Amino acid sequence: ASDIGAPCAPWQHQSQFIPIRHDMNRRQFLASVSAAAVLPLPGFAGQTPLKLKAETVSQQILPEGEGTTAMLGFNGSMPGPEIRLKRGARASIEVENGLEEGTAVHWHGIRLENRMDGVPVLTQDLINPGDSKTYSFVPPDAGTYWYHSHYISQEQVARGLMGPLIVEDDAPLDLDHDITVILSDWIIDEDGSLVDEFTDMHSVAHAGYMGNFARGFLSRSEVQQGDRIRLRLINAATNRIFPLSISGVSGSVVALDGMALRQPRAASDLVLAPAQRADLIVDVTGPVGFDMPTRQEPYRLAELSISGENTDRQSGPPPTLAAPDLPAPGAPSQHLTLTMMGGAMGGRHGGANIWSFNDVSDLPDAPFAAIERGETVRITFVNDTAFPHGIHLHGHHFYELAADDSLGDLRDTTLVAAGESRDVLCVFDNPGRWLIHCHMLSHAIGGMRTWVEVT
User: Fold this and answer.
1) β-bridge mates for residue 309, sequence order
2) What is the pLDDT of residues 137-183, one digit of tens each?
3) Residues 232/237/242/248 CA torsion (nearest 10 deg)
4) Contact 105/163 with Cβ under 8 angstroms?
5) Hey, is 116 helix, strand or coil?
6) Are 151 and 103 in contact (CB under 8 A)?
7) How far, in Å, CA of 285 to CA of 171, rounded?
8) 79-118 pLDDT, tens digit each
9) Residue 176 needs a FRET pair 20 to 30 A away by CA distance; which of 109, 248, 334, 355 works?
């Protein structure tokens, strides 16, 4: 079953229990965050190419003293090592498969050459057990990205085959710390074992595999009062949309999905669909909490503690990120419509799976659209279902269009609410066979995936 589907810092594990599965009789950890435990990650110093090994790992996902969880990871860790690359410099990353099943790695959000995109069937063969593949590409854009399995990904990503990928700015910014925050969730039993409901048909037909436990993984555990920091937020969950409230800071969102905003905006009402990212530049005013609002009370995902005060930091405007260097869109030569169909409480459709695009389930033999390189194309994503979907286009970024057709944010994944539509404008300047799919990975395995060919 095919799924179209630099030194690193230690991750800081922080967590609480989410009371979502009411059939589980377990005490709750809503009162406090568990004690921080540093998870050492392997470094890449002196390695050419960089090396990642997919393998089984045992992870302390639940609070210290609770059971450990058998998972998958890279280089002995989940999440995998933070990879930091230079913009415009060729990177080579060798992926060794130490699993008992095939795998492939997708470099999410990177506008790379098609044969390095990591999608079985479309761009490469599987990396079979015991084999290796070297991915080589030149990242053209600074920003926050990530890497993850793209084979039976609704399971392999949930089990832990993912990690952060940072393309550094050409010139260092005036910051005290640059901190990566990865968010995810899992269904975990009381003994720490992962519940294997990745393809449960009820979940696939509804909102997807949703955990009863979530946490944030941070590359740093403490900061000083008055520090100016960059927060790189990555939603690595397979299906969960994370609304976020961040306390103890004052500042702005400066980038989405790796691309700098034209104007920074307030960090309130921040929502990340699966695979989406957000960068914030903020000043620390107190202990920093990352909370997910719920109908009961805010749920603490992670936090940064305060250790002392930064008396050297001078007040002033935050640093500005370099503007994205993408081709300007012209008048669209095609207007395509991609309609999401199916699922529970959805209408009948012509696809052979639970979900479909335009009455077609799963990866079709022919592309959804044939596009000449350099064409500007308008796509209307129509959500004719009862659930939200985060639609991801490989190999490109696109502009979300406002109601007056003005250019909005540059994204590689757009969240379309149930019953609503979203228009985007994309310059397809990257040749190859590019996947489009719902990044609620339960929906992707349930049929919601297609592709375009750029020639």
Assistant:
1) 225
2) 999 999 999 999 999 999 999 999 999 999 999 999 999 999 999 99
3) -40
4) no
5) helix
6) yes
7) 26
8) 999 999 999 999 999 999 999 999 999 999 999 999 999 9
9) 109
